[in-house]
Each structure stands twice: as structure tokens, then as C-alpha cells.
Amino acid sequence: MIVEAILRGKGRDVITIGEMATLEEAARLLDAHAIGALLVEDGQGRPVAVLSERDIVREMALNGAACLHRPVAHALTQAFVTAGRNAGLNELMVLMTERRVRHVPIFDGDALLGIISIGDVVKAKIADMEAETAALQAYIRS
Questions:
Q1: Can you tell me the distance from the alpha carbon of 109 to that of 137, in angstroms, rounded to the nearest whole number?
Q2: pLDDT of 46-86, one tens digit each?
Q3: What pTM did the predictor assign?
Q4: Which structural domains are found in the chain, ordered by start?
Q5: Cβ of 142: how many Cβ atoms within 10 Å?
Q6: CA distances from 6 to 25, 82, 88, 100 (A)
Q7: Spatial separation of the C-alpha atoms in residues 29 and 140, rounded to whole Å
Q8: Do 4 and 87 form a contact (C-beta atoms < 8 A)?
């Protein structure tokens, strides 16, 4: 399965935040949308990073509640990990594991198509396994 198929199933909506917004604003957006990460945009609206719940928790642990008034850009520590629309499910699993990320924006050239989470990957993998199991059971019965 390629990631574009996952995006077709889950939708392509992406919640973004500017890099100069505060971490408190980011936390409120995460909560309001019941999501685990935001796509961070620079001043020109270009995607530059992913901010996760984990990033906010790390900042809180290191700097206390005062960090919530700092800009999102202050909490960004990782390189921007992305994948293309034709990336395979296994390729995405390896990327997430090796880079230790749980959310990967998917691009077609410069165009953002959506974000795939580790939960999306697990659901797709389970669906693939169930389809394979059903095919094997049908083969055995025939």
C-alpha cells in the first residue's frame, strides 16, 4: 500500500501553526482538534517542521510553564522529516522508526498532500494483514 491510498481514506486536512505562535496556542490547537502534531509554517506560509505533543512536554520538563509563552520555533529540534506520495507503507514504517517520529508530512513536489501518523500506518498494516488472511482462507477453502 502506498501512502497516497492512506490519505484518500483518512482525508487530507492538515492543521498548521506559524512558527512565531506560542507553545500555549499550539497546545490549545492540538487539544481542540484531538491531534498529536501540527505542521509548522514559516512567515511565508511554507511548511518547515512538525511540532508534536512530545515537543511541548519536553519544553515543559526543561523550562517549566514559562515556556508556554515562547514561540513554537523555540521547541523545534528535529530535522523536517517528509515522504513522497508514492512512498510505500514499509518505507514509511522504517522512516518513522529510524528518525523516531510519529507524524510525517506527505508531499508531491512542493505540494503538501497531508500528514500520516503512526496510528494511520498501524491501521493500514492491520487492514493489509486482514486482507491477506482472508485471501489465504479463501484459497484454503477452494
A1: 41
A2: 999 999 999 999 999 999 999 999 999 999 977 899 999 99
A3: 0.86
A4: 3-141 (3.10.580.10)
A5: 5
A6: 29, 15, 10, 20
A7: 50
A8: no
